[in-house]
Prior knowledge:
- The chain is of the alpha/beta class.
- The chain has a single domain, classed as Rossmann fold.
- It is built from 10 helices and 5 strands; from the N terminus they run βαβαααβααβαααβα.
Amino acid sequence: MSQNKQDNSRLLIVEGNIGAGKSTFLRLIKDRLACQIVYEPHEKWQNISNKGNLLENFYNDTPRWAYTFQSYAFITRTLTQKNHALKNPYSVQVLERSVFSDRYCFAKNLYESGLMSDLEWTLYLEWFGWFCQDHVTKPNGFIYLRTTPQTCYKRLLKRARHEEKAVPIEYLEQLHQKHEAWLMEKKNVDAYVKDVPVLVLDCDKEFESDEAHKNKLIDQITQFFDINYFEPSKKIDTDRQINL
C-alpha cells in the first residue's frame, strides 16, 4: 500500500452508514480545521460521459449492476483522492468514505445478500488486494460517525435523494452491522489496514444546529489526530472540482 508523498502529510477518512451525516460533518470540518475536504464523487456515478446514471441503475437493478458499480466506485474514489492530493495546500486530507468501506461494508454485504455472485466476489477481492498494495494511500486514521439505522433512515428520508427513494431500513441495518464489525471489532480485517486508528463519534444526536455538540465533536478530532484549527485569514478554498 502506497504512502503519502510528503512525510508530514496525513490522510483521514470519515466513514459511516448511508444517512449518518457525513457530508454535513465534512462541511463542519471544512469551516474549522486546516485540511482539504474531498467528497464522494457522486457526480461521476450519476453521469458517466452522458451514457447513464450508474448509481440509479445500481439501486434499480442491484444484481445486474452491483459488481459494475463497486468496480467503478473503487476507480473513482482512488483517482479523486490522488488528484486532489496533488493540489492540497494543507498537510491533512479528509475523505468522505473510502475503498475500504466498499470492501468491508458495501461490496461484502452485496455478496452475502446474494446480489453479487461467487465469481464476481472472487474477482473483486483479487484485484482489490493488488490495487491496494500499489495504488491506494494508506490512511492515518478513520473517523467513524456512529449512528443507529433508525437515525440514518430518518435523515435519508429528509434529504430525499432521487436514487435513494427505495432504500429500505433493512439495508441500513445490514450496513450498520458491517461497519460495526469492521471499525469497532476489526473482525476479518486485512493486516495492512487493521492497525489504522479509529476515532468513534456518537452522531445520533443532531449536530448541525447544536453549537455545543458541534464544538465537542470537533475538539475530539483535533485532540485525537492533533489537527490545527485554521486561521480565518489563511483559509483556502479547495472545493473547486478537479476532473478525473
